[in-house]
Design goal:
Layout: H1 2-29, H2 31-34, E1 36-38, E2 44-46, H3 47-63, E3 68-71, E4 83-91, H4 93-98, E5 104-111, E6 114-122, E7 127-132, E8 144-147, E9 150-152, E10 164-167, E11 182-185, H5 189-197, E12 201-206, H6 211-223, E13 227-230, E14 252-255, H7 258-268
Parallel strand pairs: 3-4, 10-11, 10-12
Antiparallel strand pairs: 1-2, 4-5, 5-6, 6-7, 7-8, 8-9, 12-14, 13-14
Helix pairs in contact: 1-3, 5-6
Amino acid sequence: MGDFWQEVVEFAEGTTAKVGQQLLADFGAGFGQREVTEKADGSLVTRSDRWADGALRAAIAQTYPGHGVLSEEVAHTFPDTDWCWVIDPIDGTTNFARGVPLWGISLGLLYRGTPVFGHVRIPPLQQSFYGFWYGESGLGGPAGAFLNHQPIQVSQAKPSPNQFFSLCARSTAVLKQAFPCKIRMLGVATYNLLTVAAGISLGGVEATPKIWDIAAVWAIVQAAGGQWVALETEPIFPLQPGQNYCSRAFPTLVASRPELVSVFDPYVDFLR
């Protein structure tokens, strides 16, 4: 199955590179700032989001016609296929729309409802993350997590005021009490959690991420040795065919290693 996975990596990298190049042009021209609308859930969407969503879906349909697609802007119902791509065309749309140069493109590949491969490109930083996590799928192949083709792994550092923990905009209640790490807020769910995979942060929390925010990083974070904690009673995966995932949120805590889960968990318990 090695040739299959090599093809998947090349497809994800090549496709997001092309889409990312156009999005950088849009960003530089201010398209995101001029054409912003608000969706029903209050989040922002731009013309660039819709274009990128369509371009990614078209590329998948051409290369993997038998695979399903779940995307933020169009296809919200999980299909009844063994393989499915989950797309976030621009993660960090508010950053993109307001001129903050930190946003990404996310592609997660699911097998029977559970991510086994993730790829996230951060065009403004020229960074490309990917990783493999087979879990209980029965699949095999290459292992590990990578940033620009170099292996990455979580940090082994202890919590301190010189170590980072990332929040999202809806988890700031954490700041009501003294916290064991220095706080950062990045505005991009994927990159927030990828900083743990890359050894930059010791942990991160997302209060209301949608499935397209986490499908790719679920594989990458665990491939790098990180601990994923779902802050709800029902498991996140496998996704269920026929279910609409437009409105469902998946509150999540990520820690760099098992012993830090008990350190960070009490601070985010209010999200359960």
